[in-house]
Amino acid sequence: MFKPFTTPVSSRLASSGAVILKNFVRGKRQSNQSASTKKVVNQLSALSASRKQPKLLNLCNEDLIKHKTIVNAWNLFKRKVQQRKHLQLKKQYKSIYNAMEDLKQTSPKLFELANAQQEGKRFPLEMRIPTDYPPTQPWVYNYSPKNKQ
Amino acid sequence: MKSVLGRSFTRAYATQSSTAPKISSTLLLSRNPVVTADLNPFQAQYYKYQNELWRRLMWTFPKWFYFRVGTISEQRFRQLNKDPVSNNPDIEFPRGRPEIRHQRDRRFKQELRLPKTYKEEVEVDDAGEDTGAPGAPANDDLARKIVPNSRITKADEANDKTSLERKLSRTLYLVIRNDNNKWALPNFGEKTEELQALHDLAEEGLYKIGGEHINYFNVSNTPCHLYNNEVENKKEYFIKSHILSGEFEPQDKSLQYLWLTKEELKDHLNEDYYKDIAHLLNDV
């Protein structure tokens, strides 16, 4: 709806050419948002789900059974790995226990030394976490003990 | 007081008797895996399946956000990623109508190809003069192609079993050929004059046979296993350690040593001995 300017200031401005040029629109529509608002809208458009979500997976019965079989097989595999690991740890604990019990009988002095508190012992920083691909130099050879330097 | 007396009696008996087994310390020195474990076929298939499911359920890539419309990079992106077949109402689609949203058929996974930041070797050779420097690009160039190192090393190819760089995905254990000309874990006997802690004994022995340029981490002073060696009348207490850097350099030239995985240990070690210590060794 057309709204005539009532205030004298704007009527004076309306009569000048600058304001007419500013409001002139042809072809491409320009939004009246500021640059910062546009930026935020653009950012939100990347985050929002609108028109970006894929179609829902609708598996038929056969596919559903296939999927469940795969997941069951994976769970079984993982369980077996876990059980093997658990058994190994149990055996290792048992063998430590046996060794210490035997050492107690054989040599009480060595038993005390083996059981002593290891103060100042730290986990080594040089120990590496396995990566998918090796470093360019897979092993560090040039090591010399600190007290020898 | 009573217990101390009892202990001294038993010790006196142990040292006097000729049949009492000798105490010795065996070093279980391992090199931990440098790369992740190899996947077995089932694991590889399962990961591939999950990956495909994940891709199918992924949202559409907001290309307008990363490639501003009208720029050259957007043009390159569009050249690589062609629009899918449009949903033309005049055409019949026997395998279902495409559902296009943001230039993606939302029934399928979206396959994206990003513009390369580097030139392939063939391209570089063809246009050697316009790049200025023919051949491989500078190593510090951020846009260079990332080529991961091979998981199979030279030592694997040469089957060098004394190298620490072999079988990077597995735990390796140090074995040496002992006096009986048999492969075994390095074993060091306790001296008669002075009683030495088991881990010190193992350390001293290791430095004696392998040089001092070994950086290792002793897991614990506590022995992790006892093996009763009835042939040599020895009690072998096992000390677990990891080698971190440095190298095992045999001080005696005639000393033979190998770095072996669990499976290879089975072939090299005495059968009973291996059975006794199998649970100490890592499967990976």
From TrEMBL, chain A:
Signal peptide: none annotated. The keyword Mitochondrion applies. This is Large ribosomal subunit protein mL40. Keywords: Mitochondrion, Ribonucleoprotein, Ribosomal protein, Transit peptide. GO terms for molecular function: structural constituent of ribosome. One of its GO terms (biological process) is mitochondrial translation. It is found in: Mitochondrion. One of its GO terms (cellular component) is ribosome.
TrEMBL record, chain B:
InterPro entries: Ribosomal_mL46, Ribosomal_mL46_N, Ribosomal_mL46_NUDIX. The keyword Ligase does not apply. GO terms for molecular function: structural constituent of ribosome. Keywords: Mitochondrion, Ribonucleoprotein, Ribosomal protein, Transit peptide. It is found in: Mitochondrion. GO terms for cellular component: mitochondrial large ribosomal subunit. Residues 122-141 are annotated as: Disordered. Residues 22-156 form the Large ribosomal subunit protein mL46 N-terminal domain. Pfam families: MRP-L46. The keyword Chloroplast does not apply. Belongs to the mitochondrion-specific ribosomal protein mL46 family. This is Large ribosomal subunit protein mL46. It comes from Scheffersomyces stipitis (strain ATCC 58785 / CBS 6054 / NBRC 10063 / NRRL Y-11545) (Yeast).
